[in-house]
Amino acid sequence: MPWRPYVVSNKLGRRQAMRGTRLYDTKEEAIASMKRKNENWMKLNYDKKYSKSSNFEYGAVDVGKRKYKYKVGSDGNKALLKDHDSAKKTGNVGFNFKY
Predict the structure, then answer these.
(1) CA nearest neighbour of 29 among 69, 72, 51, 59
(2) 8 Å CB contact between 34 and 27
């Protein structure tokens, strides 16, 4: 099954999710890729203090046969964040890593 990676930022009292553009064969591969891309993006655009304070969380969703599990755009990102937070409360986070 294809996996789409995502990152959750916890900056300035707000939580926001952003999905990756590529699909990966495994959940681990998807998360590792998103972590690398986000670290490179943050190095280019922000200082270490800002990056560290964002307290990023990484995960991946199984999109199945479809290209997207959630609607494209900010509404889909909000739905993803809601599911991500609900999985954290139940302890069913799988390979979601917090850095």
Answers:
(1) 59
(2) no
pLDDT in tens, 34-77: 999 998 888 888 877 776 777 889 999 999 888 889 999 999 99
Report DSSP letters for 28-65, one per residue: HHHHHHHHHHHHHHHHHHS-HHHHHHT--EEEEEE-TT
Main-chain dihedrals φ then ψ at residue 84, nearest 5 degrees? -60, -45
C-alpha of 37 from chain center = 11
Strand pairing report for 16-19 and 3-9: antiparallel
For residue 8, the cross-strand partners are 17, 57
pTM value > 0.85? no
How many Cβ atoms sit within 10 Å of the Cβ of residue 43? 11
Coil/strand/helix, residue 17: strand
Rounded CA gap, 48 and 70, in Å?
Answer: 31
